[in-house]
Amino acid sequence: MRDVIEDAYSALRSVTPLSNGLDCGKLCGSRCCKGTANDGMELFRGEEKRFENDPDYTIRESNGRKLLICSGRCDRRSRPLACRMYPFYPVPYETEDGTKIRVVYDLRGFAACPVVRDHIRPDARFVQAVRLAGTYLARDPENLKIMRETNALFDELVSFTQTIRSKTEKDT
Ligand code: SF4
Ligand code: SF4
């Protein structure tokens, strides 16, 4: 089997979320790079090998998942898939022809990321690249599982937000 991680990196090598190469970091002061040592980007299976000997990164485990901690600065060419795809995410769905991928806003960024919060239209090439990366990742059962579980988390976030909204409406 081809290296799915290598293929996913290649798919996302030269795209950015917004059209005309606009830097979305200028909308928010690059908030998604300002996490603390307690934050981290989830690594797909097999991706950790790229960072194991890099002093700029630390890998820690949480609930059986590997998380990558960075210093808040990086060489864009080495950043992980989570950062390359953010603020979008590839979610798998089943069809008669097998597993397909659609691209959604990463709802974990709802509070902090203006692209997610304001539903800013992404560059179509970026969406296509995230879909392709997701298609490569889905070839590996472990990475397919990670994408499915993350999609389930998005569903929970939507449901939680709807509950809060309806409660707020009732109380006002
Ligand atoms: S992805 Fe969102 S949070 Fe990150 S730099 Fe772009 S606009 Fe800011
Ligand atoms: S690895 Fe790079 S792109 Fe990703 S959060 Fe850290 S500084 Fe930002």
**Principal-axes shape call:** globular
Q: Indicate the radius of gyration in whole angstroms.
A: 17 Å
Question: Uncertain spans, ≥5 residues at pLDDT below 50?
Answer: none
* β-strand amount: 15-25%
State the share of residues found in helices, binned by percent: 25-40%
Word description of this protein:
- With 172 residues, the protein is of the alpha+beta class.
- The protein has one domain (4-32, 76-171).
- The protein is built from six helices and five strands.
- It has helices spanning 4-11, 25-28, 81-85, 114-117, 124-137, 141-171; strands at 41-42, 58-62, 65-69, 88-95, 98-105.
- The model has no long low-confidence stretch (mean pLDDT 91).
- The structure holds iron/sulfur cluster (SF4) (2 copies).
- One iron/sulfur cluster binds next to loops.
- One iron/sulfur cluster is lined by residues 32-33, 41, 70, 72-74, 79, 83.
Q: What are its keywords?
A:
6 helices, binds iron/sulfur cluster, 172 residues, 5 strands, two-stranded antiparallel sheet, 38% helix, alpha+beta, single chain, three-stranded antiparallel beta sheet, globular
Q: What order do the helices and strands come in, and which of them pair?
A:
Layout lengths: L3 H8 L13 H4 L12 E2 L15 E5 L2 E5 L11 H5 L2 E8 L2 E8 L8 H4 L6 H14 L3 H31 L1
Antiparallel strand pairs: 1-3, 2-3, 4-5
Helix pairs in contact: 1-5
Bound molecules: iron/sulfur cluster (2 copies).
